[in-house]
Automatic annotation (TrEMBL):
A GO term from the CC aspect: membrane
PANTHER family: PROBABLE GENERAL SECRETION PATHWAY PROTEIN D, SECRETIN GSPD-RELATED
Main subcellular location of this protein, as a coarse class: membrane
Any single biological process term in GO: protein secretion
Coiled-coil ranges from the UniProt annotation: none
Compartments where found: Membrane
Record bears the keyword Membrane: yes
Domain Type II/III secretion system secretin-like: 1-106
Protein name: Type II/III secretion system secretin-like domain-containing protein
InterPro entries: Bact_Secretion_Sys_Channel, GspD/PilQ, T2SS/T3SS_dom
Lineage per the UniProt record: unclassified sequences, metagenomes, ecological metagenomes
Length: 158
C-alpha cells in the first residue's frame, strides 16, 4: 500500500493511492522451478475532508482446483471401480479491503492513538523475532543444525 498525501484548500486531503496484492502460483508436479508471482494493482486518487475514512476494495482472488486418486487396479474395474476412486474439488474466494483514515498532522499536535500503535508494534516485533529465532534454530535432521540464514535478526533496534 502506497499513499502520497497532498494538503488542499479548506482542510481537504488529496491522496494518491496504490494498493498491490501479490500471490505465488504453485503448479502441481513442477519441481526445481520457483513459483510464478501474480500481482494485482488498484490505483486511485481521492480528495476527502480531514478525518475521513476511506474504504478501498477491488482486489479479489479465486483459487480453484480439482484432483483425484484411485487404488491401483481396483479403481480401473468397470462398474465397481468408482468405489476405489476419490475426487477432490477445492474452491476458495477472498477479497481484500483496506480502511484508511486520513488526518492532517500539523507541527506540535499530538497524534491520536500513537501510544497504542507503539505498544502493538512492539508486541508484533517481539512475536516476529521469536519466530525468526525458532526458524534459525530449526534442525533439518536431528542433531545437525542448519547454517544460519541471513539476516539473523531482521528487525534491529536502533
Amino acid at each position: 500500500l502506497t499513499i502520497t498525501p497532498h494538503i488542499a484548500k479548506g482542510n481537504q486531503l488529496g491522496l494518491d493511492i496504490k494498493m498491490t496484492r501479490s500471490d505465488f502460483r504453485f503448479e502441481e508436479g513442477v519441481t526445481g522451478k520457483p513459483p510464478d508471482l501474480l500481482t494485482s494493482d488498484v490505483t486511485t486518487k481521492v480528495t476527502v475532508p480531514d478525518g475521513t475514512t476511506i474504504i478501498l476494495g477491488g482486489l479479489e482472488k479465486i483459487d480453484q482446483a480439482k484432483g483425484g486418486g484411485k487404488i491401483p487396479l481396483l479403481g480401473d474395474i468397470p462398474l465397481i471401480g468408482g468405489l476405489f476412486r476419490n475426487i477432490r474439488n477445492f474452491s476458495e474466494q477472498s477479497r481484500l479491503y483496506v480502511f484508511v483514515k486520513a488526518h492532517i498532522l500539523r507541527p506540535g499536535e499530538e497524534v491520536p492513538g500513537e501510544s497504542d500503535i507503539e505498544v502493538v508494534s512492539a508486541k508484533n516485533r517481539a512475536t516476529f523475532e521469536k519466530y525468526e529465532k525458532e526458524m534459525q534454530e530449526y534442525e533439518d535432521w536431528p542433531g545437525i543444525k542448519s547454517k544460519p540464514m541471513d539476516p539473523l535478526k531482521v528487525l534491529e533496534t536502533e
